[in-house]
Every structure is written in C-alpha cells, then in structure tokens.
C-alpha cells in the first residue's frame, strides 16, 4: 500500500497548524526622536478606487510642498484594514497617521494607542459645532473629523412615481407613518419591490433610544435596558407584518452586500437607511437622483428627532509615532487647507471646516451639494453627539442583527431577545 | 566450546568496535552537520514561524490581551470563561455537526466517484481533472462569493426551481434552518483531493484478487466489500483523519457567506469564525488564543480516537 503508518504521522503535523494562527509578533524596537521638520510618515487609510486616487494625489501635493517629509502610503480595504491595524499595533508598528472609524476609536484611544492631537497643535478652530466632540476620548482629542455624516433615509423618487405614492413630508412623519408608507409602497409598486430595504440597524436603534431619553452608550457603559429594546423589536416586527420591509432571509443577505448592490441601489426598495456620505454612490448605482430624507420622530416634529453629526471617519495619529508634530501638521493640512480640499472634495463626507466647505461647494456634484445642504439644514434638529462606542462596543450592530433576526424569524419573543441582547452587549464591554 | 570461544571473540573484538564506533560517530557527525545545514531553512521556519508563535499563543491564552496593550496574566480565567460562553457552545455545536455530517458524506462520494473512474473508462484524466477542479477552487473566496449568489433568495438555484413551477423563495444561506446544510453541501462538493488519493489506492489493488473472486463467482458487491474496502482501508483512514482535521479548521466559507458574522442567528458560526470574532472584532486575543488551544485539544483527541479505532478496521497488507 502506498501509505503506511509512519508516513501518515506527518499528517499529525497538520494538528499543530490549528494552534498556529494566533500569536503576536515580538515587540519591535522603537527609538530615535523626532528630528525637526524631516519625517518619514506611514499613512494608512481604507477606501475605494476614487479615494485611493484622491489620497495618493494629495500625498504627492503635500510631499512636493514639504520635501523633507516622506510619506509611505498604506491603502487598504475596510474589512481587512482593522485586522492589519490591530496586528501592526500589537507589533509596535502602527502607522503614524491612521484613518480611524468611530466604531474603533475608543478601542484604541482608551488604551493609549492614539496621540493627543491637541497637544501637538491640531487646529479645529474653523470646524462646525458638534463635529469635534466625536473625536474626544477621555477628554483627549485623538481623532479629527474627516467628514460629516448623519443618518438618513434615502429614497428613490422613480419608485414613488411608479407606485403613484407621494414623497412624504420628512419633517412631520413618525415611525408609524413610515411603516404605513412602506407598506403602501410594497403593495403598489409591484414586481417584487419593497417599501424599505435595510433599515433597523444600530444607527436607527440609537435614534429610537435617544427619542426615548436613552442612548446606546454613555460614559458609564451601556445606556439602555432590556425594557427599552422591547418596543423596538415589537416595532420591527410590526414593519415586517405590514410587509413594509423584506423577509428576514432577504435582510440577512443584504448585510453582506456592498452599497452599490443593495436593494435601493438595484431598484428593489423605495427607501433604505443610509449614512449621508453614501448618497453619491447610491445615486450612481440607481441611475437616478436619490433623495435625502430625515429619519422619523416619535412626535411628528423633526426638531424632536435627536439627530446628530457623526464623523464618517477621523484622522488619528499613533501615540508611538516618532514624528508627532509632523503627523499632526499633515492632518492639519488635510482638514484645513484648500489645496487638499480641492483634491478630495466631499469624498470622505462633507468637510467639517466651514471655510473649506464654502470654498469647495461650487465644485461639488449636485448630489454632494444636496447632501451638504441637508447637513446644514438639520442643525436645529441636532441633539448632543453620542459618545463613541466604548472598547468592546464596536460590534453592537452584529449583535443587534442576530437577535433581531431571531425575532423576525419567530425564533424568539421580543422580551427574551431584548434581555439577551442587552446582556451580551454589556458582557462585551471591557470594564 | 563454541559458546566460550564466541564470548572471547566478542571480548577481544569489543575495544576495537568501540574505536570503530567513535570514528563512525565522528564521520556521522560531519554528515549530520551537513544535513542540518541543508535543513536549516526548514528548521528556522519551524522554530520561528511555528513553534515560537505556538508557545506564544499558549502563553497568551493565560492572559488578558487586547493586542493594543501589553498582555496581563489572568491564569485560567479564559478557560473557565468558556464554560459559560453560550456562543462558544453554539460554535462547537455548529462545528461538530459540520464535521460529522460533511466528512463521511464527502468521503463516500469521493470513493464512489473514484470507483467509477477506475472502471478503465476513456478520458479518465479529463474526468479526474473535472472532479478535482472544485477542490482547487473550493476554499477560495471567489467560490464562496459565487455560492452566496447562487443560493440567495433570488439566486440561480431558486430561479431554476421557479422554472419547474416551484414558488421558491427559500434563503438557502440566509434562513437559519438551511444555512449550515448549504455550507455542508459546499464542503462535500470539494471531494476532489480524497478522490484522487482513493483513485491512486484503487490502482494499486492487484487485479488477480478480483479475477480469483470472479472465478469463484463472487458478485460485484461482495468483491467491493471483501477486496476493495479492506485493501483500501489505510487510504480511507488517511483521508478520514486529514479531512476531519481540515473540517474542524474550516473558516473561509462561513466567513464569506455570512460576511464574518455567522449569520443567520449564528447558524453558521464555525469555531474558527467565532475565534476570529473574539480575537479581532472584540480585541480579546487572550481568549481567542485559549479557544485555539481548545481546538488543538479537540482535534488531537479525535485524531487519537481515530488512530485507536483504526486497529479494529484498518488492514495493513504488510
């Protein structure tokens, strides 16, 4: 026979492979002080082809103006970006300038991995009110808003026309009237189109809780109880029973899709919850000017809806960078110079610097202009900015989706799902 | 006399042979040095890339390690925590179902196709390649993405079913009742590499056994159970152990199909996927390392059981 016991033993080595995957790299040595002026900065971001080109162009412009600064770009893709950043940080090889996300900023900031940018001359003096706070962790400015985002409902006017349903007045609608509208659209649009695609995620839960005087997170941890989530799950079930949203299975499939493949983008849903910086991508994908709507309120008064600005992404620097001043200088240039703004425009979201926004406004596409106008219009509806998810809280949406799917599939009652959901969110937080 | 003379003979010869041996050992040492030199690249790899990280992860499994801060020793806390971790229990359940359903079915299919291909048919190498193809692609991201499309509520499978008048809206990967079965199907579909190994084994069974059995009037089924299976049993054993180890470590399919979440409702939460979520999603690398070691123990246990059980059913011709 070709295989005997001894040869087979080599197969046992495969067992060892199981344990191999997880281990940290040894700590690299860090030394050398920041020489004045000259620097070699590692610059990491995640993006898409457009952003990669813009960012590369901006880096070239910066290094041309500052010949003693060398910048090594580390472009990435969102899903793998965080694995890489965590591993680099563990190995003491974190990039000097880091494009950061609200979901992870506390994870890094609270553990001392991010530089206090204010101490090294960060300039946010021209930033619109409510756009700086989200980058503060424990009183330190560890991230600078790279673009303003706000949760919205995006609507495809063509489907409304097709269904002969009027666009709603988003200043007066409520969660109940939204459900009725969604159901009406599903009934009238035909050809398998539903009123609303993905809608009930962490952003809308946050809005719902805020309208009930709660928050997803507070400085002390989880800001809500199981009793606050029960009406939420009941509401989601109500939407499903009214056929305002697609089946649980279809919703599960949506979660894995890129934004240009979602139901709104391919014309299978009339509305969808989306962060405002996605309007342009969805307008392109849907082939029609997508309309931006406010999410509803409990009272039917938009000023009660407790809206907020979120940083679509932030600029951070590693606390272990050898060149803190130069890293912050680069970030300052990125958010405050017209040179950089003219290259990047509103690709990372509407600039928080009002001077810069005024300067680039004429160059924005009609969609981006509409988005900028919307963000300016909702100022009276803003409530305090939610705190960043604390360490362990960045994956709340996955946990919510799991329990919500159980409720939608009839595998769990709202009350049980709510209790388990809150328990799990709490246990995930690092005290 | 012969005994004594032989003893004295040995006695006389002993010192000489000692000298010889020392010389031999020296020569061997020189040879070995060269050998180790040639092995150096592999040895460096073994110690730096395998054993080093292995020991590091064993250490980390006794720590609270966020990747960002230095690890803190917390003793066996990570291991005791496993007892109360419901999602870990779900992950174990999913993984055990996956392994114990998909591996036997996959091996049975691989053996069946190998026996068919071994009938001396024309174009054997073509068919062999065709059947092997999924195995080369199977663990790849592209295939998992393709399956996600095919088995969607509006995917190819449902569209074909609708052609036959079935009102198919089943979410084969998004309904918690079917999602794991679809992943098992994907695993079974990758039967190519055990099939090729089976085929090689079948080729080595001497034709004379079958001829003799045919002369004695043994029907096909008896020839299969009494000749093919026993003579092939070491190969079956080999495939079984390797496939079980591989299935326990499955990750890509579930990661891609469920977008890394184990959705829907944790019905595709493979053990390695949960480990990944804990390590990189929740920044609990210490706990993830402990989970990795539990997996090592589980796989080692099943491999040991397999080896023990093999005494009773694996037939070595030598």
Description:
- The complex is a heterodimer of chains A (431) and B (318).
- Chain A is α+β, with helices and mostly antiparallel strands.
- Chain A has two domains: 39-147 and 311-365, 3-Layer(aba) Sandwich (D-Maltodextrin-Binding Protein, domain 2); 151-306 and 395-428, 3-Layer(aba) Sandwich (D-Maltodextrin-Binding Protein, domain 2), CATH 3.40.190.
- Helices cover 43% and strands 13% of the residues of chain A.
- Chain A contains 16 helices and 15 strands.
- In chain A, helix 2 runs antiparallel to helix 12 (338-344) and helix 11 (324-336) packs across helix 12.
- The longest helix of chain A has 17 residues, at 49-65.
- The radius of gyration of chain A is 24 Å and the shape is globular.
- Chain B is an all-alpha fold and 318 residues long.
- Chain B has two domains: 2-60, no CATH class; 81-313, MetI-like (MetI-like fold).
- Chain B has 13 helices and two strands, in the order αββαααααααααααα.
- Chain B has helices spanning 2-60, 77-83, 86-117, 124-138, 141-150, 156-163, 179-189, 192-203, 207-215, 220-248, 252-257, 271-281, 285-313; strands at residues 63-64, 72-73.
- Chain B has a two-stranded antiparallel sheet.
- In chain B, a hairpin with a 7-residue loop joins strand 1 (63-64) and strand 2.
- The longest helix of chain B is centred in the first third of the chain and has 59 residues, at 2-60.
- Chain B is flat.
- At the A-B interface, helix 1, helix 3, helix 9 and helix 15 of A face helix 1, helix 10, helix 12 and helix 13 of B.
């Amino acid at each position: 026979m070709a295989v005997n016991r001894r040869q087979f033993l080599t197969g046992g080595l495969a067992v060892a492979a199981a344990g191999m995957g997880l281990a940290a790299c040894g700590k690299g040595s860090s030394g050398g002080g920041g020489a004045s002026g000259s620097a070699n900065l590692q610059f990491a971001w995640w993006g898409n082809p457009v952003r990669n080109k813009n960012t590369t162009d901006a880096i070239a412009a910066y290094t041309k103006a500052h010949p003693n600064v060398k910048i090594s770009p580390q472009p990435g893709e969102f899903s793998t970006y965080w694995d890489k950043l965590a591993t680099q940080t563990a190995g003491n090889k974190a990039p000097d300038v880091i494009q950061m996300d609200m979901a992870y900023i506390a994870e890094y900031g609270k553990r001392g991995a991010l530089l206090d940018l204010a101490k090294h001359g960060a300039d946010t003096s021209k930033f619109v009110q409510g756009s700086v706070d989200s980058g503060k962790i424990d009183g330190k400015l560890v991230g600078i808003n790279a673009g303003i985002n706000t949760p919205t409902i995006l609507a495809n006017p063509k489907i409304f026309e097709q269904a002969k349903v009027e666009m709603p007045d988003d200043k007066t609608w409520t969660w109940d009237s939204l459900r009725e509208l969604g159901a009406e659209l599903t009934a009238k649009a035909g050809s398998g189109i539903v009123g609303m695609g993905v809608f009930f995620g962490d952003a809308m839960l946050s809005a719902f809780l805020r309208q009930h005087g709660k928050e997803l997170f507070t400085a002390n941890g989880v800001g809500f109880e199981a009793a606050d989530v029960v009406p939420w799950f009941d509401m989601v079930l109500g939407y499903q029973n009214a056929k305002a949203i697609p089946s649980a299975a279809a919703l599960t499939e949506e979660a894995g899709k890129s934004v240009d493949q979602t139901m709104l983008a391919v014309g299978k849903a009339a509305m969808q919850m989306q962060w405002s910086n996605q309007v342009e991508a969805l307008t392109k994908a849907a082939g029609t000017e997508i309309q931006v709507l406010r999410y509803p309120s409990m009272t039917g008064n938009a000023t009660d809806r407790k809206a907020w600005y979120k940083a679509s992404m932030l600029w951070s620097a590693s606390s272990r960078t050898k060149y803190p001043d130069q890293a912050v200088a680069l970030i300052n240039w990125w958010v405050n110079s017209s040179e950089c703004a003219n290259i990047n425009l509103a690709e990372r979201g509407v600039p928080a610097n009002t001077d810069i926004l005024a300067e680039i406004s004429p160059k924005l596409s009609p969609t981006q202009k509409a988005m900028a106008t919307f963000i300016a219009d909702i100022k009276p509806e803003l409530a305090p900015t939610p705190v960043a998810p604390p360490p362990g809280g960045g994956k709340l949406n996955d946990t919510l989706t799991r329990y919500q799917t159980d409720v939608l599939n009839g595998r769990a009652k709202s009350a049980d799902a709510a209790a388990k959901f809150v328990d799990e969110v709490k246990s995930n937080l690092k005290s | 006399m012969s005994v004594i003379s032989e003893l004295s003979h040995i006695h006389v010869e002993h010192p000489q042979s000692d000298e010889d041996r020392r010389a031999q050992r020296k020569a061997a040492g020189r040879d070995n040095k060269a050998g180790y030199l040639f092995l150096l690249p592999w040895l460096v790899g073994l110690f730096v890339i395998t054993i080093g990280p292995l020991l590091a992860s064993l250490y980390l499994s006794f720590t609270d390690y966020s990747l960002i801060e230095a690890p803190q020793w917390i003793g066996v806390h990570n291991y005791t925590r496993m007892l109360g971790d419901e999602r870990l229990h779900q992950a174990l359940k999913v993984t055990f179902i996956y392994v114990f359903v998909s591996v036997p079915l996959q091996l049975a299919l691989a053996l069946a196709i190998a026996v068919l291909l071994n009938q001396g048919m024309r174009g054997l190498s073509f068919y062999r390649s065709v059947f092997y193809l999924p195995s080369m692609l199977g663990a790849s991201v592209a295939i998992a993405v393709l399956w996600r499309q095919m088995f969607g509520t509006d995917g190819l499978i449902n569209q074909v079913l609708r052609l036959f008048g079935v009102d198919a809206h089943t979410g084969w990967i998004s309904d918690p009742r079917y999602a794991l079965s679809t992943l098992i199907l994907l695993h079974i579909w990758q039967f190519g590499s055990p099939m090729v190994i089976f085929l090689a084994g079948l080729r080595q069974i001497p034709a004379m056994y079958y001829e003799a059995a045919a002369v004695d009037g043994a029907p096909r089924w008896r020839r299969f159970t009494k000749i093919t299976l026993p003579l092939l049993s070491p190969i079956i054993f080999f495939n079984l152990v390797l496939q079980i180890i591989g299935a326990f470590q499955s990750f890509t399919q579930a990661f891609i199909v469920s977008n890394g979440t184990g959705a829907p409702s944790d019905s595709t939460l493979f053990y390695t996927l949960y480990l990944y979520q804990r390590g990189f999603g929740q920044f609990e690398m210490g706990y993830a390392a402990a989970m990795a070691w539990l997996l090592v123990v589980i796989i080692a246990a099943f491999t040991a059981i397999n080896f023990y059980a093999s005494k009773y059913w694996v037939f070595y011709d030598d």
